[in-house]
Design brief:
Elements lengths: L13 E6 L2 E6 L4 E5 L2 H15 L14
Antiparallel strand pairs: 1-2, 2-3
Bound molecules: zinc ion.
Length: about 70
């Protein structure tokens, strides 16, 4: 089911876990989203998080000030 061994760092570090009839987006950084009834929505939460917190253009700008 999984394409083994082709996970690039910084690509998709998010996943969804299912709790009962709910799906929750989770990220390898420790973030987790709210429980959703639809996995698609949980995946969207993950996508929003990944875009906001882990932008695909991983340019080490070394301007890491706040947060
Ligand atoms: Zn994250």
């Amino acid at each position: 089911m999984l394409d083994s061994g082709d996970i690039r760092p910084g690509q998709n570090r998010t996943t969804t876990v299912e709790r009962g009839s709910f799906s929750i987006a989770r990220c390898s950084c420790g973030w987790s989203g709210p429980a959703r009834r639809a996995r698609a929505i949980a995946r969207d939460d993950a996508a929003v998080h990944a875009t906001a917190r882990h932008p695909p253009s991983d340019t080490s700008d070394s301007s890491d000030s706040s947060d």
